[in-house]
Amino acid sequence: MSYINNWDNQVTKHHKQSESKIVSKYKEDFWEDKVEGFIPPELPDYNDPTLSFLQTHLTPKSNILDLGGGAGRLSIPLAQKNYLITIVDSSKAMIHAAQQHSKYLNLKNVSTSHSEWQNFEDKKFDHIICSHVLYGISNIKEFILKIQSSINKSAIIIMYDKSPQSHLEEIWELYYSEPRINLPGMSDLKKVINQLNIRYQFFNIDENELTVYENFESLLNSVSSQIFVSHSEQNLIKLSNILNNYMNHNNDNFSFPLQSKRKLQAIILER
Question: CA angle at residue 196 from 6 to 208, to 5 degrees?
């Protein structure tokens, strides 16, 4: 059995299923209107489980590539701790935000590159961080092998045990009357890494609560966006009925049943 082929096929089928439900096309840069949520705070919380984990496993003041680093949510706080940072991301809007935020903080140790990983220059880094990037990556073998060949010390890959939207699969099936094809998660990545015969260490970092919505409107807007429900009155009524029956209600709050937590995990690839 080829876990590499399984990963690539699963990603392709997921994207194809998603595209079949999208009524209006996304902007060329998917992340353009989502940047704000990925800009790090001016005063980072270094007790954040992910930042704390990274600092434990990174050599102080080392040369780090943040692969798919977006607006620098993780790497700009590391730059404030005197790490030498390079952020590469395929989103022009995210890279622009990282540049502006670094400039605002007067950081001289942050460089950026607007590039796909496969087109990024061949260059060595002490460490590579790749956080919540791999779920939707096809050609996973080439992606991982390039990471492995670009490190002097280690690469830290952070993911949830399951894809970030896997908790919506039952709502998807209730709405569309077809099973949701989820993206791969960490359990799938471990099989790929084993097949590539790359040495690694595995860590459980934390458990994250799923979002609890303070009102029904915010729940409806969030879920409709994530499962590609157009905002026609008929469609929203249908989804509202599903959510009212499916979600847990506590006063005005709405939470997901059963899967109240998801596991945040990491793999460290070694040279």
Answer: 65
End-to-end CA distance of the chain: 26
Give 26's Cβ-side CA count (13 Å radius): 15
Whole-model pTM over 0.85: yes
DSSP string, 4-48: HHHHHHHHHHHHHHHHHH-SSPPPSSTTGGGGGGGSPPSS--TTS
- What phi, psi does 93 have (nearest 5°)? -65, -40
Question: What confidence score (pLDDT) does residue 170 get?
Answer: 94
> How many domains, in total, are found in the chain?
1
Range of the domain at 90: 3-163+182-209+262-270
> How many Cβ atoms sit within 10 Å of the Cβ of residue 180?
20
Question: Mind listing the pLDDT tens digit for each residue in 184-230?
Answer: 999 999 999 999 999 999 999 998 888 899 999 999 999 999 999 99
* Collapsed DSSP state (helix, strand, coil) of residue 23: coil
Q: What are phi and psi of 149, to 5 degrees?
A: -80, -5
Domain annotation covers residue 227: no
The answer to whether residue 238 sits within a structural domain is: no
Q: Answer whether residue 27 is part of any domain.
A: yes
**Overall residue count recorded for the chain in this entry:** 271
> Could you identify the residue written with the tokens 């620098």?
72
> 67, 130 in Cβ contact below 8 A?
yes
- The pair of structure tokens assigned to 239 is 């989804």
Residue 221 lies in a domain: no
Report residue 196 as tokens: 């590539």
Backbone angles phi, psi at 113, to 5 degrees: -145, 125
- Tokens 């954040």, residue located: 48
Contact of 208 with 182, CB cutoff 8 Å: no
